[in-house]
Design brief:
Blueprint: E1 35-42, E2 50-52, H1 58-80, E3 84-86, E4 95-100, E5 109-121, H2 124-142, E6 148-152
Length: 153
C-alpha cells in the first residue's frame, strides 16, 4: 500500500505515513440504500372465495386459500427476484381473512381478503424500475376485477 499524500510505500495497517505524517484513513465503501416495499393482493368482498369453519380451523382456511393462490404469488416473486427479496412469511401466514358469523341456519365461514408480503430490495432506483414493470402486469390483472395487486411503500 502507498501513502495517498507522498506515494511512498507504507504498511497495510498504518494509521499515519511514517515519511510525511499524513493520516491514512480507511477507504469507506458507499452504503447501499435498501428500499422496503409491501406486495399486496386485495380481494374485493365476495371475490376471495369462502371456507366453512364447521369442520375446519383458521389455519386450515389459510392453507386452503394459500394453495389456491401460491402459484400466482410465486410467479410474481420470481419476476421481481433480482430486485426484491421477501422478508416476511411467504405461505399461509401471509393470507388475511374476513370472518362471517353463520347465523341461525348456516355455519361460521371466512373469506380471503388479502395476501401481504414484506419485501426488501436494493438499490432504490432498481426498486422503482421493478415497481413500474409490475404495475403494468397488475393493471392487466386488475381489469378482471377479481383482485387488486400492487406494491406499496
Amino acid at each position: 500500500m502507498n501513502c495517498p499524500s507522498c506515494k511512498k510505500p507504507i504498511s497495510e495497517d498504518a494509521s499515519f505515513c511514517q515519511y510525511c505524517g499524513a493520516s491514512i484513513k480507511a477507504q469507506e465503501k458507499p452504503v447501499e440504500e435498501f428500499g422496503f416495499k409491501t406486495f399486496v393482493i386485495w380481494f374485493p368482498p365476495g371475490k376471495g372465495g369462502s371456507y366453512s369453519l364447521k369442520d375446519g380451523t383458521e389455519f386450515a382456511a389459510r392453507a386452503f386459500f394459500w394453495g389456491v393462490t401460491q402459484e400466482f404469488v410465486h410467479k410474481i416473486l420470481a419476476t421481481i427476484a433480482p430486485m426484491f427479496v421477501p422478508i416476511s412469511e411467504v405461505g399461509p401466514g401471509a393470507v388475511k381473512l374476513r370472518y362471517h358469523s353463520g347465523g341461525i341456519f348456516s355455519d361460521e365461514w371466512v373469506e380471503k381478503t388479502e395476501i401481504r408480503i414484506a419485501l426488501k430490495g436494493s438499490p432504490q432506483s432498481r426498486l422503482n424500475e421493478a415497481q413500474k414493470r409490475l404495475n403494468e402486469i397488475f393493471r392487466e390483472m386488475n381489469k378482471k376485477g377479481e383482485m387488486i395487486c400492487e406494491i406499496t411503500d
